[in-house]
Specification:
This protein has a single domain, classed as Clavaminate synthase-like (Double-stranded beta-helix, 4-Layer Sandwich). Helix content is about 30%, strand content about 20%. The chain contains ten helices and 16 strands. A hairpin with a 6-residue loop joins strand 9 and strand 10. The protein is globular and about 60 Å long. The protein binds fe (ii) ion. Fe (ii) ion binds next to loops. InterPro entries: AtsK-like, TauD-like_sf, TauD/TfdA-like. It comes from Hohenbuehelia grisea. Keywords: Dioxygenase, Iron, Metal-binding, Oxidoreductase.
Length: about 375
């Protein structure tokens, strides 16, 4: 090819590329101009103020499934059931969650308790049934938690939303940090933190925004028996104060609708249905170990957080394809968002249904949480 031909070919390639770019820009503009399918579920920051939560008696639906002849019968018609890792996470295709019977839902609760995390693909029916259905769905598994600071669809405070789009200018969580990874168990500062939790995306970036999960059962099992025996004797303070302060500083929606609380939970908790023991501290909400000197508490928590951070062998990662619904058991897992899509300006809009569970049960019957 002569120099002239190369120049001509390059010019042609450039012109084609320009046309393609203009085409995709045009497509993007068109997509932007279309009304947003889930506009009725956009975040609303009501000025309501809520009284403190009151205790309630939680009956775990997973208990009922223990009596079923086959507690995994709800998966019989699945086209595929694949374990994501040996000890954490299962991915299911071919089941319509919206059509599960109450017995099926009980089995689902048990399965999520056992696997920590279950990912259901192709759930457009579930997602499109809307907020009344979300409330009915979640109420099967426990009393629905209303988040003290987050946005929710108007008139549906029980639906916790995460939201970000091209107009979102803040990046407070990650601007001052080398990573957006913050392992946590949702609202662990509550006296009765959530159990079986449902989360799905209504809109998502083309790539990025995956969610990380870790098994706190596996994290605990990696530790030596002597060390675990010591951890079973400990309890820790979990605090919602910093999350409220973050909102009061004008970040996110800037709303605190219920005064923040601190509660004491066992460092090792026992799942009420499976009996499995799980580590129950997290960097986001756990503040100190009760009864230890400051340096002891900080050193011990730092060791446990580092262990959780770096143990890839106990983790799974969910990539959000459209119409995916994920369920996790907040008692035996921790998770972290990944905010790696900030430059894309694409919308990420998620909804969480968060039933509360029992007050965490200490692994050791000798541990008195009220002392
Ligand atoms: Fe979370």
């Amino acid at each position: 090819m002569s120099t002239t031909e190369i120049v001509a070919a390059s010019a042609e390639a450039l012109a084609t590329l320009k046309l393609r770019t203009e085409g995709s820009n045009e497509e993007q503009k068109q997509a932007d101009a279309e009304p947003y399918r889930y506009a009725h579920l956009l975040p609303h920051f009501s000025q309501d103020h809520y009284p403190p939560l009151t205790p309630y008696e939680h009956v775990d639906p997973g208990h009922r499934a223990l009596d079923h002849p086959n507690p995994r019968a709800f998966l019989d018609n699945a086209s595929s059931v694949v374990e994501l890792t040996p000890y954490l996470g299962t991915e299911v295709h071919g089941i319509n969650l919206a059509e599960l019977t109450n017995d099926d839902r009980d089995e689902l609760a048990l399965e999520v308790a056992r696997r920590g995390l279950v990912v259901f693909r192709d759930q457009q029916d579930f997602i499109d049934r809307g907020p009344e259905f979300y409330r009915e769905w979640g109420s099967h598994f426990g009393r629905l938690h209303i988040h003290p600071t987050s946005g929710h669809p108007q008139n549906y405070p029980e639906i916790h939303l995460v939201y970000r789009d091209g107009n979102t200018s803040f990046n407070f969580e990650i601007n001052d940090s080398i990573t957006s990874t913050v392992w946590h168990s949702d609202v662990s500062y509550e006296l009765q933190p959530p159990g079986l939790t449902t989360f799905f995306l209504l809109a998502q970036p083309t790539t990025g925004g995956d969610t990380l999960f870790t098994s706190q059962v596996s994290n605990l099992k990696k530790l030596s028996p002597q060390f675990v025996a010591f951890l079973r004797t400990l309890k820790a303070v979990h605090s919602g104060v910093e999350q409220a302060d973050f909102s009061r500083a004008g970040k996110r929606g800037g709303i605190v609708r219920r005064e923040p609380v601190e509660n004491i939970h066992p460092v090792v908790r026992k799942h009420p249905v499976t009996g499995e023991e799980a580590l129950y501290v997290n960097r986001q909400f756990t503040r100190r170990i009760v009864g230890l000197k400051k340096e002891e508490s900080e050193t011990l928590l730092k060791f446990l957080y580092d262990h959780i951070d770096k143990s890839g062998d106990n983790q799974a990662r969910v990539k959000w394809t459209p119409n995916t619904v994920v369920l996790w058991d907040n008692r035996v897992t921790a998770h972290s968002a990944i905010v790696d899509y900030g430059e894309s300006k694409e919308r990420r809009h998620g909804a969480r249904i968060t039933p509360q569970a029992e007050r965490p049960v200490p692994a050791s019957a000798d541990l008195d949480l009220n002392a």
